[in-house]
């Protein structure tokens, strides 16, 4: 392992193939919830990978039977009240999304258990996404009183159509891996015990293929995604405005207190 990865504490790395780097989300929190350190490291890792000539393909996966159940709401409450923390989190969100889109190396995600919020971003922005049939996906933003941000507006309509994107993002409905494959949200769904072997097989095939051809194909396909950059940038701004507003505060408090939220019934928007 090259020294460039030694500085990461919440991400673990191994090599299932000499030219494949596997990133393992190693959160100390339940269900792989991202603490602030992991969120920052996921916004930075893609530059290191992009310039690492020893890596031809990347796998991103969770620990055990969990991918990542999104951000740490205890920290998000601090973000809601602290402007500097809010701007830092917003920058990290943009860097994570654009980092995955613009990383020249193909990325394969292996998804088991819950993938929510920022976890879904890492799962779906991968170039090939492989989910367990019983994995659980949910965007989750409007449930806690903020606009759907992170990755959602840049990729969901392309993957599943505008009609499906509106339904799942506005209603915060969850779906399992089998349904995610049916509607095109993920590349494929397999039995839980097959996720690891499938991700390694796909990443190995990409790592051993024609590298320039694969990378230029990724770059060209992601031009469709980059075309949605203004939509994504606006959605992230709306999301972080919401964190500082009454709906975001009430939504996060209600979730942490395990009670129904009491959102205002009217808004000036």
UniProtKB/TrEMBL annotation:
**Is Transport there in the keyword field?**
no
Q: Kindly report, in one word, the top-level EC class recorded for this enzyme.
A: lyase
Among its keywords, does the record have Lyase? yes
Key words, A-Z? Lyase
Q: What is its EC number?
A: 4.2.1.17
Pfam families assigned to the protein according to its UniProt record, in alphabetical order: ECH_1
Q: Name one GO molecular function term.
A: enoyl-CoA hydratase activity
Q: Which InterPro entries match?
A: ClpP/crotonase-like_dom_sf, Enoyl-CoA_hyd/isom_CS, Enoyl-CoA_hydra/iso, Enoyl-CoA_hydra_C
Q: Which family does it belong to?
A: Belongs to the enoyl-CoA hydratase/isomerase family.
Descriptive protein name: Enoyl-CoA hydratase
């Amino acid at each position: 392992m090259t020294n460039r990865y030694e500085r990461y504490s919440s991400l673990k790395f191994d090599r299932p193939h000499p030219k494949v780097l596997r990133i393992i989300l190693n959160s100390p929190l339940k269900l792989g919830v991202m603490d602030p350190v992991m969120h920052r490291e996921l916004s930075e890792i893609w530059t290191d990978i992009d310039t690492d000539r020893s890596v031809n393909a990347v796998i991103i996966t969770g620990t055990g039977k969990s991918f990542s159940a999104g951000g740490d709401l205890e920290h998000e409450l601090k973000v809601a009240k602290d402007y500097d923390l809010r701007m830092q989190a917003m920058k990290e969100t943009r860097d994570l999304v654009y980092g995955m889109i613009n990383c020249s190396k193909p990325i394969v995600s292996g998804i088991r258990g819950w993938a929510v919020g920022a976890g879904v971003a890492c799962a779906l922005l991968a170039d090939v996404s492989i989910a367990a049939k019983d994995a659980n996906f949910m965007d989750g933003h409007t449930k806690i009183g903020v606009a759907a941000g992170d990755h959602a507006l840049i990729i969901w309509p392309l993957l599943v159509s505008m009609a499906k994107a509106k339904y799942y993002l506005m209603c915060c409905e969850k779906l399992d891996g089998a349904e995610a494959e049916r509607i095109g949200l993920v590349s494929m769904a397999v039995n839980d015990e097959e996720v690891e072997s499938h991700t390694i097989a796909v990443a190995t095939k990409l790592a051993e293929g024609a590298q320039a051809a694969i990378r230029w194909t990724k770059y060209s396909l992601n031009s469709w995604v980059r075309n949605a950059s203004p939509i994504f940038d606006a959605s992230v701004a709306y999301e972080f405005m919401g964190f500082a507003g009454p709906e975001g505060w009430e939504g996060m408090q209600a979730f942490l207190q395990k009670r129904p939220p009491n959102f205002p019934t009217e808004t000036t928007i």
